[in-house]
Structure formats: structure tokens, C-alpha cells
Amino acid sequence: LVKIATPDPWKVGSRGAGMKAKKRLNENKLLTGGKGRYNPHSASFKKCRICGQSVHQPEAYYCQSCAFKKGICAMCGVRLVNTSNYNQCAV
């Protein structure tokens, strides 16, 4: 018989045996599932540069209400709309 350079797929017995990750038994998924999930109370949210309120998007500089009143982008602060002749009310 001749030896071949490739591994034998039937040698391990099952198709998932080569993987390193193992299935966890008796795991409560409600307790362990939220580790990588979005957290609204995390410290990655900055304060608004105008009013000091917490912003709603990570890496944003202005809250949505101040960005709407000033006509600027909440993420970068670029002026999008000329609001000099507007009578805006953000209620």
C-alpha cells in the first residue's frame, strides 16, 4: 500500500471531531449570552459638547436634539443645514 500526504477524513470518526470548540453542557444561556451584547450604560458613550447630555451613539460628539437644532451632523459636527432663517422647536 502507498501512504498518502493528506489526512484521512474517516480516521477521526465524526465530522466535528477536528474542531477545538466544545459544546458546553448545562449552561444557562440567559446568564452567559449577554457578554458581547450592546450595553447602553457602558462608559464608551461620551457627553454632548453643547448640553452635556449623554449621546446615543458611540463615538458621537453631539446628542441628536442639539444636532437637529444646530443643523449639524451628530457624529462629526459638519454643518448640513443652514438654520439661520428657521424657527425650530425640538419638543
TrEMBL record:
Subcellular location as annotated: Cytoplasm
Top-level taxon: Eukaryota
GO MF annotation, one: microtubule binding
Any one Gene Ontology cellular component term annotated for this protein: spliceosomal complex
Swiss-Prot/TrEMBL GO biological process terms: cytoplasmic microtubule organization; mRNA processing; RNA splicing
InterPro entries: PDZ-binding_CRIPT (IPR019367)
Pfam family name, one: Cript
Keyword field: Cytoplasm, mRNA processing, mRNA splicing, Spliceosome
Family: Belongs to the CRIPT family.
Name listed for the protein in its UniProt record: Cysteine-rich PDZ-binding protein
Native source species: Rodentolepis nana (Dwarf tapeworm)
